[in-house]
Amino acid sequence: MSRAAKYAPTVALKIQTLPSAADSGIPPAAITIKTDPVIGRYPDITPAKEPVEVSVHALGVAASARMNGIIRWRKTLDPRWQETELQTDGTCRWKGKWIPPTPGDYHWMVKLRPEKTQSAHIDKGGSSGLHLLRAERRELFSVKWFRATREPLSNLVVQAESNNAGIFLLPPLFPQTASHMIGHNGVGHYTISPKLGNTSCFGKLAAKINSQGKILGLTMPMRCSPGHPFRAKEPTAFSEDGIPDLTGENWQRHQKEWRAIFRYWIVQGIEIFEIPDPGELSLSFWQHLIKSLRDDFPDVVFTYRDNSNPDLSPHLLGIGFSEFNAPGITTDVIPAPSTTISVRKISFSSTNPHLVASIRRSADGEFLLRISNKKPTSAQSGHIHFSGATPELKEWERYYLHNLTDGRSCHWVGTTNFVALKAGEQARTLRVERSQ
Asked: Would the pTM of this model clear 0.70, i.e. be above it?
């Protein structure tokens, strides 16, 4: 075994100078481009034909460097890129906007490059990562939704004539069991329940909706009863609860059968499908199904209701589902008070314009706090402050908040607190209790 050289303090060591970056010919550090909106795992959602505002900040670029900036964008299946120029403020910041002309999924990115008068060795330019954006039908963000109840179609025709809502959402029209599974005596999702009407009645309703320039939607439960033709033919392809089993060969079978179901109703005039609890089926199932339908019907919309797993919402948005902050389609978990209770007006202020809050007292005398995210496609946080509150909410006093949606508890102190909602979490309703 060799011995290590003995340290000799009398040996003089020459200190080597570091090479100068200016003299080495090494190119400068690569440009890092930060954008707002930022690149996320899930697509940003915006109305079609509305400008998408973009802010750009470049790191690794000298303030004196003369750079041109552009936004490149295209539909995801379009090989051709469109370009829109960015405007600089004279520093390392640029701003611009682009407009998705039609509904659909888009890619966009930012590119910076030297002006032609710049020396090529000064900087080679750079580009941001690829952003995802889904442009929804513009009218879906502004019109009222009307949720029809399960009653004869002749009654719904009358309601359509007198209702001024822009979207008319139908309940499940199919024959169903007492447990709300679909199907009876060999008929299923192709058939309207005789208790509600027939194809002629539906045709009159669809024609009335169309003549008024409204949009027709349909609630589409996926659970099939033992009497459903799909389940009767392949009983092992479903669970006891009627949920399609997607293992093995069942995957292709269900894709084919359900694709045909949705195409049938699209042809009948349905433009929006509401899926109750889509988390019962895999994300990949929905992603393939929605994509295959949108290849032929790009304007068809899938939304959801009663999702038992709120953490799943951003994933659903990422694979093609849509979410609209429409009062007529959102279930409010705050029970309506059975008696009138007078309370002083309570106003609020928020440091985040996307966070909206309200508070009131229930019939049982409990305070119910509701915090909503006006832009649920992204996480939101900020301070909420209530003023004009009743004496029960005292400054600096600690309270318990019980989330009525998931049963979790947290603390609230006085009248001002910091609140954070996750992406996909549209609203949170909490019961306020005094800490003991």
From this structure: no
